């Protein structure tokens, strides 16, 4: 192969990886806390690949026009199978006719994932994001970079990427997958949705106390 062509391909690949890492996100006025998971309660999870770049789960809203809550915290569990930390985007999307639509109030956050099993709490109380009355989607979007690839004896055309996000099994599927566009996963044999613990604030006055 011509040396100039090889150099061009290397430059293009490098640019693609830098594009993934430098994608716009909004980490101002939020905080992260990390806790250890001692019990073996993570048995099922989702991970990224070239054809499964993001997962989302839909959440209904019980709010009314007179009492519309704000997002407080989002908690989730993860496993990082590499010896080095990884990163992932946490996103909140508007409900667009039953599928993830636009980002809700620029809610795209780059989350640092330590090694091993970790309980992560994302505090959004200072962002003052109202919970949509027609529901919303919580999504994880993988950074498909060399640093996040799972190493070891992995023999698959679509390499998995760290981290693994905890999910749940069930009869009712609430899992949406994105490659080039969003689609709903029809099969619940392994995963039915993302395992998330979401809390709200009923009044902005609570956030200033």
Description:
By secondary structure, the protein is mostly beta strands. It has a single domain, classed as Jelly Rolls. Helix content is 11%, strand content 43%. The chain has two helices and 13 strands. Strands 1, 2, 4, 7, 9, 12 and 13 form a seven-stranded antiparallel β-sheet that branches. Strands 6-5-8-3-10-11 form a six-stranded antiparallel β-sheet, with no helix packed on it. The chain starts with a helix and ends with a helix.
Oligomer: single chain
Cα end-to-end separation: 66 Å
Structural class from helices and strands? mainly beta
Taken as a percent bin, the fraction of beta residues is: 35-45%
Pattern of helices and strands = HEEEEEEEEEEEEEH
- Overall average pLDDT: 82
CATH topology: Jelly Rolls
Described by strand count, sense and barrel closure, the largest sheet is: 7 strands, antiparallel
